[in-house]
Amino acid sequence: MHTAAQPSHDWAAQAPIVDFTVNANGTLILLENFRKYCPQSVFIFVSTNKVYGDSPNRLAFKELKTRYELPLRHRYYKGIDETMSIDNCLHSLFGASKVAADILTQEYGKYFGLKTGIFRGGCLTGPVHSGAELHGFLSYLVKCCILKRKYKIFGYKGKQVRDNIHSYDLVNAFYLFFKQPRNGEAYNIGGSRFANISIIEAIQMCQDLFGENLDYEYVPQNRIGDHIWWISDVTKFKEQYPKWQYKYDIEST
Predict the structure, then answer these.
(1) pLDDT in tens, 150-162
(2) For residue range 61-89, what is the model confidence (pLDDT) as tens digits?
(3) How far apart are CA 26 and CA 20, in angstroms?
(4) Which of these, 47, 165, 202, 216, has the minimum number of CB atoms within 10 Å of its CB?
(5) Can you tell me whether residue 99 is helix, strand or coil?
(6) Rounded (to 5) percent helix, strand, coil in the chain
């Protein structure tokens, strides 16, 4: 299970060679050693929804009171699936290095006939998530509540939507793939319509939970390449692995 990465958009722009070396070259080294020394095993790579760049931002969102949302009949209302193009959009350098690793892992599966699975996660979280200001949004938000730090919202009026998948549910998906692996398959994986929330909604939930107001400020400039709205369509994975079910919704997470 290859989960190693340089995970920050913003940091990647300061050190693009280090970012690409970690995310792309590091994955290539792992894949090549996998091919040479344990080709009968299973290789699971944790990719990212950022391989789609800012293409999701072109969708026709409606602005509601606490979130952006798609019309009920929209093609992607259920969530974004693997058919969305990854081309001709802004990725950030982090996104570009993860695209390279993602395609490499697919290619080793399809070209060499190896058992590789690519999981394009949205927000992955859980009890030991080391959330920081620029990634790990739910974890960092709760940390700010507990430590009484000021939280910053970056752009989109705080109405940007993210699905969040608990580590238990994610690892369970890995396990099912490991039991019945395929060659170079890519899956969007996340909380889907089962577990998603906007920043404003998450702040309100935390304030209800802690019984006090959170100190936060709004920064009008959004982060480069950041998504206005991301909900994963996990239909492909669920069709291939029908035993997989969610355990943790947003509130329990």
Answers:
(1) 999 999 999 999 9
(2) 999 999 999 999 999 999 999 999 999 99
(3) 8
(4) 216
(5) helix
(6) 40, 20, 40
